[in-house]
Write a structure and sequence with these properties.
Helix content is 58%, strand content 12%. The protein is built from 7 helices and 6 strands; from the N terminus they run αβααββαββααβα. It has helices spanning 12-25, 33-40, 49-55, 73-76, 92-100, 102-105, 115-162; strands at residues 30-32, 60-62, 69-72, 80-83, 88-89, 108-110. A 3-stranded antiparallel beta sheet has the order 1-3-2. It has a 3-stranded antiparallel beta sheet with strand order 5-4-6, with no helix packed on it. Helix 1 runs antiparallel to helix 7. The longest helix is centred in the C-terminal third of the chain and has 48 residues, at 115-162. The radius of gyration is 24 Å and the shape is elongated. It starts with 11 loop residues before the first helix and ends with a helix.
Length: 163
């Protein structure tokens, strides 16, 4: 993972868990990123939620549209079968009827995630965070070793130059 991984930012894991939890259970699968900010409050690891969503494409999706709708990738992959007013998935017949009425279909979205799906996403975020920290710690021991090696090489070069 890159040295400047977003997982190394202060409060990033807390922001990811908050976003995953709310976005996973919220009735609508996607909102403009500014609306998520209203619902989540300001993130602590970045200036806005758009930055958090953009830096973590493994969890979040930003649309290419000017309005920039944000959603969880896992929810975006689901079919649009969930009725927000009814708070349940529609049967095939109900879905066909809703599709024929534009007004009714605007309240059909992707279903909220179940607790196990949210738990899996949160565990993945925690695991990626832990792996990034472990990777950074592994690199720390290498720095003094490389400086020592460089010092030895410079010493040898200088010693041979002085002879």
């Amino acid at each position: 993972m890159a040295r400047n991984s977003p997982y190394l930012r202060d409060w990033r894991l807390a922001d990811l868990i908050a976003a995953i939890t709310l976005m996973g259970r919220y009735p609508y699968a996607s909102l403009r990123w500014q609306e998520w900010e209203y619902r989540l409050g300001s993130p602590r690891s970045a200036g806005d939620w758009r930055t958090v969503f953009y830096e973590h494409p493994e969890f979040f999706r930003l649309s290419d549209e000017e309005e920039e709708w944000a959603s969880l990738r896992l929810r975006y992959g689901l079919d649009r079968t969930y009725s927000v007013p009814l708070r349940r998935e529609l049967s095939a017949e109900e879905l066909r009827a809703a599709e024929s009425s534009e007004a009714a279909y605007k309240d059909v979205t992707r279903r909220p995630l179940n607790p196990d799906e949210i738990d899996a996403l949160v565990r993945t975020a925690i695991d990626l965070h832990a792996r990034t920290i472990a990777h950074e710690q592994e690199r720390r021991w290498l720095t003094p070793l490389l400086w020592s090696l460089l010092g030895t090489i410079v010493g040898i070069v200088l010693q041979s130059a002085l002879r």
